[in-house]
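Exam revision sheet. Question 4 asks you to relate a sequence to its structure. Input first:
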Amino acid sequence: MKRKFWNWVKNEGELSVERTLFLNGEISDETWYGDEVTPQLFKDELNAESGDITVWINSPGGDVFAAAQIYNMLRDYKGHVTVKIDGLAASAASVIAVAGDTVLVSPVAMMMIHNPATVAMGNTKDMEAAIAMLNEVKESILNAYVDKTGLSRNKLSKMMDEETWFNAKKAVELGFADKILFDKEEEKKPDKEPKQEEPDEGEEGDEGESTKEGSEEDDEKKKKFPFQQNAYEYSAKKVTDSFLSKVTNTAPCEPQIPIDQLRKRLDLLKR
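Answer key, structure tokens:
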């Protein structure tokens, strides 16, 4: 998040500053390696100057609460916020992406939304508390998605349940993005076409069938997609797990000897 580029642009006879920030890497509440994006680092960059701003996003996600802080900063920012999805806006990064006043997605970029995840241990009450917390976190995420897309909570909730990946075209169709970057046809259109009204929750028909077919296609894509793993978690534990995976020796264990063979060897020693 330390990388920044300021471009001086002449606008209506006045010289104003238009800034571009790059949100690259995992989102965390603190940094250990210097390559994570934290709310404090983002805040320092965002408030360094005033005026319109462009935020390029390429992130697999991370801590949902850190992402929520960045989301709020962008929504509260006085200038116009343009978000450009560079390569990936997955998990918590998708929450930040929908904070833009205008969201543009690269034709080769991907987005992904899914249910929040965490690591918990303890007794029954501890597990129930963890489940209740995750349910509330999901509802807070849905607030951001509904506000941007206009889709029903029920439809978005099912998309999160299925861990849904979508390309640039699908992102625009669903309302997560406004336009596709570098699309000449989109640039020629004077006005954005109005979104089709969403059917009431529970209403079935062609829409339901197309969603089912789309989910089957997404399942096939997920089997082949290189980012398909448990790395995208809406949890502070994500950072801990990432750190431990980098400092822990993950070499495979030695092959184990079956118990029956060990018994035979012991019998031979006794003789």
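Marking note for examiners. Residues 2-12, 203-207, 221-236 have pLDDT under 50 and may be disordered.
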